[in-house]
Amino acid sequence: MTAESELREGALRLLVRREHTRSELTRKLTSRGHDPDAVARLLDELAAEGLQSDLRFAREHLRSRMERGYGPRKILAELSKRGVSRIQAARVLEEAEVDWGAVAQQVYRDRFGPETPAPQDRKERARRWRSMERRGFTAASIAPLLE
């Protein structure tokens, strides 16, 4: 087996398991001793063939993380960490047309109870705010929940 076919097979094995960003594939393949230039050429080919797409990865990641109750800020940060450009990540969030207020409301209900009244205690209010903030929701999504 030639080095080129071994490299392609390795990349395809990774992509069969789950979507990967170009950055992730580059890191994984070069860490296995493959030539960085050969990796770059292969990834160009895979992208041209539609087998690798940062945009497709971002859409899938958004869907997955949203289902798990994460907000837009956390999802953007994760996409950036995985090598998706800020422009692509913002585009994916915009295209999704998600009502983040409704997502935040559902997460809040799941976390604090469906009929929980707004906390009157400042400490409890701050604790709930931080909890929602850690999940990646913005102040505009959190504030109505605590009124």
Structurally, the number of domains stands at: 3
Q: Biggest sheet, in brief? A: none
Give the rounded overall mean pLDDT: 93
* Secondary structural class: mainly alpha
Q: How many angstroms separate the termini?
A: 65 Å
H/E series: HHHHHHHHH
Number of helices: 9
Give me the count of strands. 0
Shape label: elongated
- Residue stretches low in confidence (pLDDT < 50, at least 5 long) are none
Question: Percent range for helical residues?
Answer: over 70%
Task: Estimate the strand proportion.
Answer: under 5%
As a whole number of angstroms, the C-alpha radius of gyration is 20 Å
Tell me about this structure.
This protein is an all-alpha fold and 147 residues long. It has three domains: 3-48, Arc Repressor Mutant, subunit A; 54-96, Arc Repressor Mutant, subunit A (Orthogonal Bundle); 100-146. The chain is 70% helix and 0% strand. It is built from nine helices and no strands. It has helices at 3-17, 22-31, 36-48, 54-67, 72-81, 86-96, 100-112, 122-134, 139-142. The relative contact order is 0.11. The model has no long low-confidence stretch (mean pLDDT 93).
